[in-house]
Amino acid sequence: MPNAIEHLIPHRSPMRWIEALTDCTDTTAKATAIFDEKSPAVADGKVLESALVECVAQTAAAALGQRARNRGKAGATGDGMLVAVSNFKIHFSPRAQKTLQIEIFERKRLGPMIMISSTISCEGQTIAAGDLTLYA
Predict the structure, then answer these.
(1) How far apart are CA 71 and CA 48, in angstroms?
(2) Tell me, what DSSP letter sits at residue 46?
(3) Are 32 and 20 in contact (CB under 8 A)?
(4) Quick one: residue 105, left, alpha or beta (phi over 0 = left, psi -120 to 50 = alpha)?
(5) Which residues pair with residue 84 across a beta bridge?
(6) Band (136; pLDDT cuts 50, 70, 90)
(7) Residue 90's CB: how many other CB atoms inside 10 A?
(8) Sign of torsion over alpha carbons 56, 123, 39, 2
(9) What integer pLDDT is reported at residue 55 of this predicted model?
(10) What is the structure's pLDDT at 74?
């Protein structure tokens, strides 16, 4: 299901970090990201920890955009924001040029507030996991 990500999220290069939304249901989504050595999200050849959190937020934005498109509306809205990061554990920072797999699961929703759980893996190994609260 890879979809042109530019139609789903408002982010543009160099701040658009996910490459593709690869799966999307009503409560889950998967995306991929690959960071170039010259990316502002890379230092000393490794992806910055803050970029990993942003990849999860962008995956959530892409899922919301895809769900809107599925309902016949335009994709990217640009109205959402990251509200909180909790229980986010980063086991290690991956090297640039590696494909990251981002998976999210919607845990709770109260009006425009959404809590999601996430896992980021690289080469089959979990590198980070945690929860984000978003306003969307």
Answers:
(1) 35
(2) E
(3) yes
(4) beta
(5) 133
(6) confident
(7) 15
(8) negative
(9) 97
(10) 73
Our CA angle for 130, 27, 117, nearest 5°, is 5
Q: How far apart are the first and last CA of the chain?
A: 23
| Averaged pLDDT score across all residues of the chain | 92
Topology, domain 5-135: Thiol Ester Dehydrase; Chain A (3.10.129)
Where do the structural domains in the chain lie, given as residue ranges? 5-135
Let me know: does 133 contact 92? Beta carbons within 8 Å: no
CA distances from 9 to 46, 48, 53, 76, 113 (A): 25, 21, 16, 4, 18
For the chain, how big is the Rg over CA atoms in Å?
A: 14
pLDDT tens across 65-110, in order?
A: 999 899 888 766 667 789 999 999 999 999 999 999 999 999 999 9
Residue showing tokens 């309902």: 71
